[in-house]
Amino acid sequence: MTDAPIFDPHAWKLTELETELTARARKLGKEKFADRAETWDREATFPIENYKDMYEAGLLGICIPESHGGFGAGMRAYCLSAAEIGRYCGSTALTWNMHICSTLWTGTLADELELSAEQRSRHEQGRAHHYGRIVKEGAIYSQPFSEGGAAAAGFQPFSTQARATEGGYIVSGKKIFASLAGHADYYGVLCTHIIEGKKPSRSDTLYLAVPADADGVKVVGDWDPLGMRGTVSRTLLFEDVFVPATEELMPQGVYFQAASNWPHMFLTLSPTYMGISQAAYDFTVSYLRGEVPGTPPVKRRMYPTKQIAVAEMRVKLEAAKSLWFQAISEAQCKPSKEQVLRAYATNHLIMETANDLCRLAIRTCGGQSMLKSLPLERLYRDSRCGSLMLPWTAELCLDRIGREALYEPGETDD
Ligand SMILES: Cc1cc2nc3c(=O)[nH]c(=O)nc-3n(C[C@H](O)[C@H](O)[C@H](O)COP(=O)(O)OP(=O)(O)OC[C@H]3O[C@@H](n4cnc5c(N)ncnc54)[C@H](O)[C@@H]3O)c2cc1C
Predict the structure, then answer these.
(1) Residue with CA nearest ligand 1 atom 12
(2) How does residue 192 score in pLDDT terms, banded at 50, 70 and 90?
(3) E strands within 82-185?
(4) pLDDT value at 154 more than 90
(5) How far apart are CA 278 and CA 298, in angstroms?
(6) Within 13 Å, how many C-alpha atoms sit on residue 205's CB side?
(7) Is the CB of residue 217 less than 8 Å from the CB of residue 237?
(8) β-pairing verdict for 234-244 and 141-142
(9) Domain-wise residue ranges, the chain
């Protein structure tokens, strides 16, 4: 039996497209991804089969405009669908996010930015190029921006550099925690365009699709982490890689404009953890009712302590769902200060709630519930990774809320 939607279409007034896409994602997740998740986790291997299924279901192109053969989903439709996948396989949902950002940021998000006529026409050509590959060939894109320094947190220019050369750029640098490493067809690399005589600047960030098979691209290091093991987030090295100018995902200067004016673009890691939160709650209810497949039909729901724990979990889940729904609904270019603070608060709450609900689930269900034959212990480990994701780690969300709530832009105490 298919699980109930996390966000009931009628109660949450979802659009027709959101209803259709979330149903599609939930069906794939429940029928295919749930059973496979254990394998990717145990072996720390990439869920390649899931990607074949997602391609067939049109989900690789969910955010690609209809005019280019996609579904034309915006931020909210994507987030709601990703949460449905996250409840069955965290690694699939998280890596899907990396792929989707290559299309969401360049798609509906870029439509709201102020581009010159020249930039717009260049961007249109780029979109046709990248979207065609995804829709027609099932190409997978990833999004490595982390480098281990302060760039991924948004405080410094990226150390990965691109120098202009005839017909394109020469890219050099290193990206850590590059989900889909060795499995994506194109790495959507953020790097600093080095301009002769000019200090490296964040405003000169370039967003390039580096072909995985280009000379000088290397995947190095092992991958044996606590959670999100199926993401295969190994290290990428770029050693003087030639990248044709046609591989720009956004014209020069546009990524910086997006990061400055469309802050909700960094909220897209949260759907995976919204899904994990729901999964931890659902597991607890089924387990206490004695209904988890593969376990003896022993009921534990009659104990008042269990009932209180489930109630506590439900309160946390409802609060997280409501705030998250509001934040993903109001994502837009140039949001108000209140909306930005709410986005930080939402990301913080979702990442922390996912881990908290998994903790409560294990404590409430008991020792047998955390055996590796059941999904709960994987959910627990996967949930731990959410608050570590830059640029909006749980710490940095609090840091930003505190500072931006107390200071208006440009204000100091000097
Ligand atoms: C499973 C998984 C998959 C990932 N996939 C990707 C991916 O596909 N692409 C990608 O780009 N990255 C990815 N990441 C990387 C992730 O986004 C972070 O960049 C990475 O976890 C940072 O490593 P760190 O905590 O060691 O970083 P550090 O920079 O050492 O930061 C440590 C902590 O210090 C805090 N901190 C950092 N900078 C500052 C600052 N300036 N001021 C105050 N506090 C600060 C943060 O809270 C951070 O959590 C992934 C991570 C995980 C765990």
Answers:
(1) 146
(2) very high
(3) 141-142, 161-165, 168-178
(4) no
(5) 22
(6) 24
(7) yes
(8) unpaired
(9) 16-139, 161-258, 262-404
Whether the domain at 16-139 and the domain at 161-258 fall into the same CATH topology: no
Q: Is the pLDDT of residue 153 over 90?
A: no
Closest ligand 1 atom number to CA of residue 228: 1
Cα(388) to ligand 1 centroid in Å equals 5
344 band by pLDDT with thresholds 50, 70 and 90: very high
Q: What is the DSSP letter of 355?
A: H
pLDDT at site 296: 87
DSSP code, position 224: -
**pLDDT higher than threshold 90 for residue 360:** yes
Q: For residue 57, what are the contacts with CB-CB under 8 A and spacing of at least 6? A: 24, 28
Helices (H), 180-269: 254-261
The residues, ordered by sequence, that sit 6+ positions from 130 with a Cβ below 8 Å of its Cβ are 102, 103, 106, 141, 186, 209, 249
CATH architecture of the region 161-258: Beta Barrel (2.40)
Half-sphere exposure of 356 (CA within 13 A, CB side): 17
Nearest-angstrom CA–CA distance, 89 and 379: 9
Q: How far is the CA of 291 from the centre of ligand 1 (A)?
A: 38
Is the pTM of the predicted complex or chain greater than 0.90? yes
What's the token pair of residue 366?
């008991």
What is the C-alpha separation between 178 and 39, in angstroms, rounded? Answer: 21
Q: Which of 387, 385, 319, 33 is nearest to 311 (CA)?
A: 319
- How far, in Å, CA of 14 to CA of 29, rounded? 20
pLDDT for 212 beyond 90? yes
What pLDDT digit, counting tens, does each position of 85-115 carry? 999 999 999 999 999 999 999 999 999 999 9
Q: Which fold has domain 262-404?
A: Butyryl-CoA Dehydrogenase, subunit A; domain 3 (1.20.140)
230 DSSP 8-state letter:
G
What single string gives the DSSP state of each residue in 290-330? T--TTS-----TTSHHHHHHHHHHHHHHHHHHHHHHHHHHS
208 vs 117, 125, 145, CA distance in Å? 21, 14, 11
Domain 16-139: CATH architecture, name and number where available: Orthogonal Bundle (1.10)
Q: Which residues line ligand 1 (CB under 6 A)?
A: 98, 143-146, 150, 152-153, 155, 177-179, 228, 231, 233, 385, 388-390, 393, 395-396, 399
**Residue 2 pLDDT more than 80?**
no
Among 94, 99, 101, 146, name the best residue to mutate to test ligand 1's pocket (greatest count of ligand atoms within 8 A of Cβ).
Answer: 146
Residue nearest to atom 36 of ligand 1 (CA): 396
